[in-house]
What does this fold into?
Amino acid sequence: MIPVCRLEDLPAGEAVRLDSTPPIAVFNAGGELYAIDDTCTHQDAPLSEGWVEGCLVECPLHAAAFDLRTGRPTSPPARRPVRTHQVVVADGVIHVRPSDAPAVRTATAPRPVPGPEP
It folds into this structure.
């Protein structure tokens, strides 16, 4: 686990970036703590510099939004999710347990296969 900061040092609506590989952002969304990869899947912007509203973070570059609980994008232009990571608070210190699992893929609607003309 990676120590992040003291719980009181991360106020609601704020984020902190871990310079890990890959970088991880830890968010305090109304008292709930979430950790996701800190790089927007659309164009490499740091999500830790984005705007938090509820359980969403909006990318500061092109306004793509991600659900902090699942890592899934909720608005374009991002189409791929970011990985989520486990957050643990022990003795007043926030820790992150990085995930080694890939990000959950979002479902896309199947495209029709062209067939012969009737």
The radius of gyration is 16 Å. Strands lie at 2-6, 15-18, 24-29, 32-37, 51-53, 56-58, 65-67, 73-75, 84-90, 93-97. The chain has no helices and ten strands.
